[in-house]
Design brief:
5-stranded mixed β-sheet, alpha/beta, 14 helices, single chain, about 50% helix, about 400 residues
Length: about 400
Protein backbone atom coordinates (compact mmCIF):
# COMPACT_ATOMS: atom_id res chain seq x y z
CA UNK A 1 0.00 0.00 0.00
CA UNK A 2 2.80 2.41 0.85
CA UNK A 3 4.62 1.54 -2.35
CA UNK A 4 1.47 2.29 -4.39
CA UNK A 5 1.12 5.67 -2.68
CA UNK A 6 4.72 6.57 -3.48
CA UNK A 7 4.22 5.73 -7.15
CA UNK A 8 1.07 7.86 -7.26
CA UNK A 9 2.82 10.85 -5.67
CA UNK A 10 5.70 10.56 -8.10
CA UNK A 11 3.28 10.52 -11.04
CA UNK A 12 1.48 13.61 -9.78
CA UNK A 13 4.77 15.53 -9.34
CA UNK A 14 5.80 14.66 -12.91
CA UNK A 15 2.46 15.94 -14.21
CA UNK A 16 2.77 19.19 -12.27
CA UNK A 17 6.31 19.74 -13.54
CA UNK A 18 5.17 19.21 -17.12
CA UNK A 19 2.25 21.61 -16.73
CA UNK A 20 4.53 24.24 -15.12
CA UNK A 21 7.03 23.91 -17.94
CA UNK A 22 4.35 24.40 -20.58
CA UNK A 23 3.05 27.49 -18.71
CA UNK A 24 6.52 29.04 -18.56
CA UNK A 25 7.07 28.47 -22.29
CA UNK A 26 3.67 29.95 -23.11
CA UNK A 27 4.33 32.99 -20.94
CA UNK A 28 7.71 33.51 -22.59
CA UNK A 29 6.10 33.37 -26.04
CA UNK A 30 3.52 35.97 -25.02
CA UNK A 31 6.15 38.30 -23.46
CA UNK A 32 8.36 38.09 -26.52
CA UNK A 33 5.56 39.55 -28.63
CA UNK A 34 4.84 42.48 -26.25
CA UNK A 35 6.67 45.61 -27.49
CA UNK A 36 9.16 47.02 -24.97
CA UNK A 37 8.41 50.53 -23.74
CA UNK A 38 11.49 52.72 -23.18
CA UNK A 39 11.96 53.74 -19.57
CA UNK A 40 12.60 57.42 -20.33
CA UNK A 41 10.05 58.43 -22.96
CA UNK A 42 8.46 61.62 -21.57
CA UNK A 43 7.79 64.24 -24.22
CA UNK A 44 9.21 66.83 -21.80
CA UNK A 45 12.90 66.13 -22.42
CA UNK A 46 15.95 67.40 -20.59
CA UNK A 47 16.66 69.70 -23.52
CA UNK A 48 13.21 71.25 -23.19
CA UNK A 49 13.64 71.59 -19.42
CA UNK A 50 16.93 73.46 -19.83
CA UNK A 51 15.43 75.67 -22.53
CA UNK A 52 12.58 76.62 -20.20
CA UNK A 53 15.01 77.40 -17.37
CA UNK A 54 17.27 79.57 -19.50
CA UNK A 55 14.44 81.45 -21.23
CA UNK A 56 11.89 81.52 -18.44
CA UNK A 57 11.57 83.00 -14.99
CA UNK A 58 14.87 84.30 -13.57
CA UNK A 59 14.01 83.35 -10.00
CA UNK A 60 13.28 79.76 -11.01
CA UNK A 61 16.62 79.58 -12.82
CA UNK A 62 18.42 80.86 -9.73
CA UNK A 63 16.59 78.34 -7.56
CA UNK A 64 17.34 75.31 -9.75
CA UNK A 65 20.75 76.12 -11.26
CA UNK A 66 21.98 78.27 -8.32
CA UNK A 67 23.17 80.97 -10.69
CA UNK A 68 21.84 83.55 -13.12
CA UNK A 69 21.22 82.53 -16.72
CA UNK A 70 24.06 84.66 -18.10
CA UNK A 71 26.49 83.14 -15.58
CA UNK A 72 25.38 79.63 -16.52
CA UNK A 73 25.85 80.27 -20.23
CA UNK A 74 29.31 81.71 -19.56
CA UNK A 75 30.18 78.65 -17.46
CA UNK A 76 29.21 76.36 -20.33
CA UNK A 77 31.35 78.36 -22.78
CA UNK A 78 34.36 78.33 -20.46
CA UNK A 79 34.15 74.60 -19.76
CA UNK A 80 33.77 73.70 -23.43
CA UNK A 81 36.38 76.07 -24.87
CA UNK A 82 39.08 75.93 -22.20
CA UNK A 83 38.61 72.87 -20.00
CA UNK A 84 37.82 69.99 -22.33
CA UNK A 85 34.07 69.47 -21.85
CA UNK A 86 32.43 68.21 -25.05
CA UNK A 87 28.86 67.73 -26.19
CA UNK A 88 27.77 64.20 -27.07
CA UNK A 89 25.66 63.02 -29.98
CA UNK A 90 22.50 63.28 -27.87
CA UNK A 91 23.34 65.99 -25.30
CA UNK A 92 24.40 69.60 -25.63
CA UNK A 93 26.98 71.13 -23.28
CA UNK A 94 24.19 73.15 -21.64
CA UNK A 95 22.23 70.01 -20.79
CA UNK A 96 25.34 68.19 -19.57
CA UNK A 97 26.34 71.06 -17.27
CA UNK A 98 22.70 71.50 -16.27
CA UNK A 99 22.51 67.90 -15.05
CA UNK A 100 25.65 68.39 -12.96
CA UNK A 101 24.51 71.67 -11.40
CA UNK A 102 21.05 70.22 -10.78
CA UNK A 103 22.70 67.33 -8.92
CA UNK A 104 25.10 69.31 -6.71
CA UNK A 105 22.78 72.26 -6.20
CA UNK A 106 19.77 70.25 -5.08
CA UNK A 107 21.59 67.31 -3.50
CA UNK A 108 19.67 64.73 -5.54
CA UNK A 109 20.72 61.26 -6.66
CA UNK A 110 21.18 59.67 -10.06
CA UNK A 111 17.57 58.42 -10.30
CA UNK A 112 16.11 61.88 -9.76
CA UNK A 113 18.32 63.25 -12.53
CA UNK A 114 17.30 60.39 -14.83
CA UNK A 115 13.65 61.25 -14.32
CA UNK A 116 14.11 65.00 -14.68
CA UNK A 117 16.32 64.91 -17.79
CA UNK A 118 15.05 61.66 -19.34
CA UNK A 119 18.41 59.93 -19.71
CA UNK A 120 19.73 56.58 -18.56
CA UNK A 121 21.58 56.14 -15.30
CA UNK A 122 24.77 55.34 -17.21
CA UNK A 123 24.53 58.56 -19.21
CA UNK A 124 23.88 60.65 -16.08
CA UNK A 125 26.83 59.03 -14.28
CA UNK A 126 29.24 59.43 -17.20
CA UNK A 127 28.38 63.06 -17.88
CA UNK A 128 28.53 63.94 -14.17
CA UNK A 129 32.13 62.77 -14.07
CA UNK A 130 32.95 64.56 -17.34
CA UNK A 131 31.82 67.89 -15.87
CA UNK A 132 33.55 67.11 -12.58
CA UNK A 133 36.85 66.54 -14.39
CA UNK A 134 36.50 69.83 -16.28
CA UNK A 135 35.81 71.78 -13.08
CA UNK A 136 38.85 70.24 -11.40
CA UNK A 137 40.95 71.40 -14.37
CA UNK A 138 39.48 74.89 -13.91
CA UNK A 139 40.29 74.93 -10.18
CA UNK A 140 43.95 75.94 -10.59
CA UNK A 141 42.90 79.02 -12.56
CA UNK A 142 40.04 80.18 -10.36
CA UNK A 143 40.88 79.16 -6.77
CA UNK A 144 43.85 81.43 -6.23
CA UNK A 145 44.61 85.01 -5.16
CA UNK A 146 43.69 87.56 -7.82
CA UNK A 147 46.80 89.56 -6.84
CA UNK A 148 49.52 87.12 -5.75
CA UNK A 149 51.71 90.03 -4.58
CA UNK A 150 49.00 91.52 -2.33
CA UNK A 151 50.25 94.96 -3.31
CA UNK A 152 47.09 96.87 -2.34
CA UNK A 153 44.96 97.08 0.79
CA UNK A 154 41.71 95.11 0.38
CA UNK A 155 38.88 97.55 -0.36
CA UNK A 156 36.70 95.87 2.28
CA UNK A 157 39.26 96.90 4.92
CA UNK A 158 40.19 100.26 3.46
CA UNK A 159 36.56 101.42 3.38
CA UNK A 160 35.79 100.46 6.97
CA UNK A 161 37.09 102.56 9.86
CA UNK A 162 36.69 99.62 12.24
CA UNK A 163 39.44 97.75 10.35
CA UNK A 164 41.54 100.48 8.74
CA UNK A 165 44.35 101.23 9.26
CA UNK A 166 44.79 98.55 11.92
CA UNK A 167 44.44 95.51 9.62
CA UNK A 168 45.83 97.09 6.44
CA UNK A 169 48.31 94.23 5.96
CA UNK A 170 45.71 91.47 6.30
CA UNK A 171 45.16 89.48 3.10
CA UNK A 172 42.39 87.08 4.09
CA UNK A 173 41.18 84.50 6.59
CA UNK A 174 41.72 80.77 7.13
CA UNK A 175 39.48 78.21 8.80
CA UNK A 176 38.20 74.68 8.53
CA UNK A 177 34.70 73.34 7.95
CA UNK A 178 33.14 69.89 8.02
CA UNK A 179 31.45 68.46 4.93
CA UNK A 180 29.28 65.34 5.13
CA UNK A 181 31.07 62.18 3.96
CA UNK A 182 29.72 58.78 2.95
CA UNK A 183 32.21 56.11 3.96
CA UNK A 184 32.10 52.33 4.51
CA UNK A 185 31.11 51.13 7.98
CA UNK A 186 34.55 49.67 8.67
CA UNK A 187 36.14 53.09 8.06
CA UNK A 188 33.67 55.30 9.90
CA UNK A 189 35.59 55.86 13.13
CA UNK A 190 38.29 58.16 11.77
CA UNK A 191 35.74 60.17 9.79
CA UNK A 192 33.46 60.94 12.72
CA UNK A 193 33.75 64.66 13.41
CA UNK A 194 32.81 66.78 16.38
CA UNK A 195 29.07 66.37 15.78
CA UNK A 196 29.20 62.58 15.81
CA UNK A 197 28.61 62.13 12.06
CA UNK A 198 31.01 61.15 9.31
CA UNK A 199 32.63 64.18 7.65
CA UNK A 200 35.67 65.31 5.77
CA UNK A 201 37.49 68.27 7.29
CA UNK A 202 38.15 70.96 4.69
CA UNK A 203 40.65 73.76 5.23
CA UNK A 204 40.21 76.89 3.13
CA UNK A 205 41.47 80.44 2.76
CA UNK A 206 39.44 83.31 1.34
CA UNK A 207 39.81 86.99 0.59
CA UNK A 208 37.45 89.75 1.71
CA UNK A 209 35.30 89.46 -1.41
CA UNK A 210 34.24 85.97 -0.24
CA UNK A 211 36.37 84.27 -2.90
CA UNK A 212 38.24 81.08 -2.05
CA UNK A 213 41.97 81.47 -2.61
CA UNK A 214 42.84 77.97 -1.42
CA UNK A 215 40.92 74.75 -0.66
CA UNK A 216 42.33 71.58 0.89
CA UNK A 217 39.70 68.82 0.99
CA UNK A 218 39.87 65.15 1.90
CA UNK A 219 41.00 65.05 5.51
CA UNK A 220 39.06 62.74 7.81
CA UNK A 221 36.58 64.41 10.13
CA UNK A 222 38.54 63.51 13.27
CA UNK A 223 41.61 65.44 12.09
CA UNK A 224 42.31 68.63 14.05
CA UNK A 225 42.44 71.92 12.16
CA UNK A 226 45.94 72.55 13.50
CA UNK A 227 47.23 69.27 12.08
CA UNK A 228 45.85 70.05 8.63
CA UNK A 229 47.25 73.57 8.82
CA UNK A 230 50.77 72.49 9.71
CA UNK A 231 50.77 69.80 7.02
CA UNK A 232 49.63 72.24 4.34
CA UNK A 233 52.27 74.83 5.29
CA UNK A 234 55.07 72.28 5.27
CA UNK A 235 54.04 70.68 1.98
CA UNK A 236 55.84 72.34 -0.90
CA UNK A 237 53.40 70.84 -3.39
CA UNK A 238 50.22 72.11 -1.72
CA UNK A 239 49.94 75.29 -3.87
CA UNK A 240 49.03 77.19 -0.71
CA UNK A 241 49.40 80.98 -1.24
CA UNK A 242 51.82 81.83 1.57
CA UNK A 243 51.67 85.44 2.76
CA UNK A 244 54.57 87.68 1.68
CA UNK A 245 56.73 89.26 4.40
CA UNK A 246 54.72 91.81 6.37
CA UNK A 247 51.35 90.36 5.32
CA UNK A 248 49.18 87.92 7.24
CA UNK A 249 45.98 85.89 7.38
CA UNK A 250 43.52 86.00 10.27
CA UNK A 251 43.12 82.66 12.05
CA UNK A 252 41.21 81.56 15.13
CA UNK A 253 42.66 80.31 18.40
CA UNK A 254 43.03 76.79 17.08
CA UNK A 255 45.95 77.92 14.95
CA UNK A 256 49.38 79.19 16.04
CA UNK A 257 49.96 82.94 16.29
CA UNK A 258 53.00 82.77 14.06
CA UNK A 259 54.58 84.86 11.33
CA UNK A 260 51.98 85.42 8.63
CA UNK A 261 49.05 84.23 10.76
CA UNK A 262 47.38 86.48 13.33
CA UNK A 263 45.31 84.78 16.03
CA UNK A 264 43.13 86.39 18.75
CA UNK A 265 43.98 86.67 22.43
CA UNK A 266 43.17 83.51 24.32
CA UNK A 267 41.17 83.64 27.54
CA UNK A 268 39.21 86.70 26.36
CA UNK A 269 35.74 87.26 24.91
CA UNK A 270 35.81 86.59 21.19
CA UNK A 271 32.66 85.50 19.37
CA UNK A 272 30.40 88.25 18.08
CA UNK A 273 27.24 87.05 19.78
CA UNK A 274 29.04 87.24 23.14
CA UNK A 275 29.90 90.90 22.59
CA UNK A 276 26.38 91.65 21.39
CA UNK A 277 24.79 90.09 24.44
CA UNK A 278 27.36 91.24 27.01
CA UNK A 279 28.90 94.42 28.42
CA UNK A 280 30.78 96.94 26.31
CA UNK A 281 34.43 96.42 25.38
CA UNK A 282 36.56 97.35 28.38
CA UNK A 283 40.17 96.41 27.56
CA UNK A 284 42.55 96.62 24.57
CA UNK A 285 42.50 92.84 24.24
CA UNK A 286 38.71 92.79 24.02
CA UNK A 287 38.79 95.61 21.46
CA UNK A 288 41.20 93.58 19.34
CA UNK A 289 39.25 90.34 19.68
CA UNK A 290 35.99 92.05 18.77
CA UNK A 291 37.42 93.51 15.54
CA UNK A 292 39.35 90.31 14.77
CA UNK A 293 36.20 88.20 15.13
CA UNK A 294 34.18 90.55 12.96
CA UNK A 295 36.78 90.68 10.19
CA UNK A 296 37.57 86.95 10.31
CA UNK A 297 33.87 86.14 9.95
CA UNK A 298 34.33 86.49 6.19
CA UNK A 299 35.57 82.88 6.01
CA UNK A 300 32.58 81.63 7.98
CA UNK A 301 30.17 83.57 5.78
CA UNK A 302 31.95 82.21 2.70
CA UNK A 303 31.46 78.67 3.97
CA UNK A 304 27.84 79.59 4.61
CA UNK A 305 27.30 80.58 0.97
CA UNK A 306 29.07 77.42 -0.23
CA UNK A 307 26.85 75.09 1.80
CA UNK A 308 23.67 77.03 1.11
CA UNK A 309 24.20 76.91 -2.64
CA UNK A 310 25.38 73.32 -3.03
CA UNK A 311 23.14 71.03 -0.99
CA UNK A 312 25.12 67.96 -1.99
CA UNK A 313 27.69 69.03 0.62
CA UNK A 314 25.13 68.30 3.35
CA UNK A 315 23.84 65.03 1.91
CA UNK A 316 26.78 63.49 0.08
CA UNK A 317 25.78 60.38 -1.95
CA UNK A 318 27.92 57.23 -1.63
CA UNK A 319 30.43 58.07 -4.35
CA UNK A 320 33.99 56.87 -3.90
CA UNK A 321 35.72 59.07 -1.33
CA UNK A 322 38.07 60.37 -4.02
CA UNK A 323 35.04 61.59 -5.97
CA UNK A 324 33.55 63.17 -2.84
CA UNK A 325 36.76 65.18 -2.37
CA UNK A 326 36.59 66.36 -5.99
CA UNK A 327 32.97 67.39 -5.52
CA UNK A 328 33.96 69.72 -2.67
CA UNK A 329 36.61 71.38 -4.85
CA UNK A 330 34.20 71.59 -7.81
CA UNK A 331 31.60 73.33 -5.65
CA UNK A 332 34.26 75.86 -4.56
CA UNK A 333 35.08 76.43 -8.24
CA UNK A 334 31.42 77.12 -9.00
CA UNK A 335 31.26 79.39 -5.94
CA UNK A 336 34.14 81.53 -7.22
CA UNK A 337 32.88 81.50 -10.81
CA UNK A 338 29.51 82.89 -9.73
CA UNK A 339 31.04 85.47 -7.37
CA UNK A 340 33.34 86.84 -10.06
CA UNK A 341 30.46 87.35 -12.49
CA UNK A 342 27.46 88.23 -10.33
CA UNK A 343 28.10 90.51 -7.37
CA UNK A 344 24.34 90.76 -6.81
CA UNK A 345 23.85 87.00 -6.45
CA UNK A 346 21.17 86.55 -3.74
CA UNK A 347 23.09 83.93 -1.73
CA UNK A 348 26.17 86.14 -1.49
CA UNK A 349 24.01 89.13 -0.65
CA UNK A 350 22.34 87.21 2.17
CA UNK A 351 25.73 86.44 3.74
CA UNK A 352 27.32 89.81 3.08
CA UNK A 353 27.45 91.10 6.68
CA UNK A 354 28.24 89.99 10.21
CA UNK A 355 24.57 89.50 11.10
CA UNK A 356 24.58 86.26 9.14
CA UNK A 357 27.68 84.93 10.87
CA UNK A 358 25.67 83.60 13.81
CA UNK A 359 23.85 81.18 11.54
CA UNK A 360 26.73 79.66 9.59
CA UNK A 361 28.85 76.63 10.26
CA UNK A 362 31.92 78.36 11.61
CA UNK A 363 30.21 79.78 14.70
CA UNK A 364 29.83 76.57 16.64
CA UNK A 365 31.84 77.34 19.74
CA UNK A 366 30.17 76.25 22.96
CA UNK A 367 32.07 78.68 25.16
CA UNK A 368 32.22 82.45 25.38
CA UNK A 369 35.97 82.80 25.61
CA UNK A 370 38.82 81.97 23.30
CA UNK A 371 41.06 79.28 24.67
CA UNK A 372 38.45 77.53 26.78
CA UNK A 373 38.34 73.78 26.43
CA UNK A 374 36.51 72.63 23.28
CA UNK A 375 36.58 69.50 21.17
CA UNK A 376 37.30 71.48 18.04
CA UNK A 377 40.91 72.55 18.52
CA UNK A 378 44.14 71.60 20.18
CA UNK A 379 45.68 74.31 22.42
CA UNK A 380 49.01 75.88 21.58
CA UNK A 381 51.68 76.39 24.22
CA UNK A 382 53.53 79.35 22.74
CA UNK A 383 53.49 81.92 19.98
CA UNK A 384 55.98 83.95 18.01
CA UNK A 385 57.02 87.26 19.54
CA UNK A 386 56.71 89.07 16.20
CA UNK A 387 52.98 88.43 15.86
CA UNK A 388 52.37 88.88 19.59
CA UNK A 389 53.94 92.34 19.39
CA UNK A 390 51.91 93.23 16.29
CA UNK A 391 48.73 92.13 18.03
CA UNK A 392 49.55 94.22 21.12
CA UNK A 393 50.23 97.27 18.97
CA UNK A 394 46.94 96.91 17.06
CA UNK A 395 45.05 96.35 20.32
CA UNK A 396 46.46 99.51 21.90
CA UNK A 397 45.74 101.65 18.81
CA UNK A 398 42.20 100.34 18.53
CA UNK A 399 41.35 100.81 22.19
CA UNK A 400 42.70 104.35 22.10
CA UNK A 401 40.11 105.19 19.43
CA UNK A 402 37.15 103.88 21.45
Amino acid sequence: MDMYADETDHFILEELAAITGVAIIAASEVMSHIPRIPCWRSCYTGHMYMTDLLRGNRIKCLSVLRMDRSVFRDLCRQLSTSYGLQASRELSVKEIVGMFVYTVGNGVGNRSVQDRFQHSGETVHRQFHNVLASLIRMSDDIIRPRDPTYSTVPKYIEDNEIYFPYFRDCIGAIDGTHIHASVPNDDRTRFIGRKGVTTQNVMAACDFDMLFTYVCAGWEGSAHDSRIFSTVLSNGNSKFPHPPPGKYYLVDSGYPNQSGYLAPYRGQRYHLEVFRNGPDVSTPREAFNHAHSSLRSVIERTFGVLKNKWHILSTMPPYSFRTQVKIVVACAVLHNFIRLRALDDPDFTAYSDDDHTLHVSGMEASTSQVGASTSEHQPFIGEELEMAALRDMIAAEMFASY
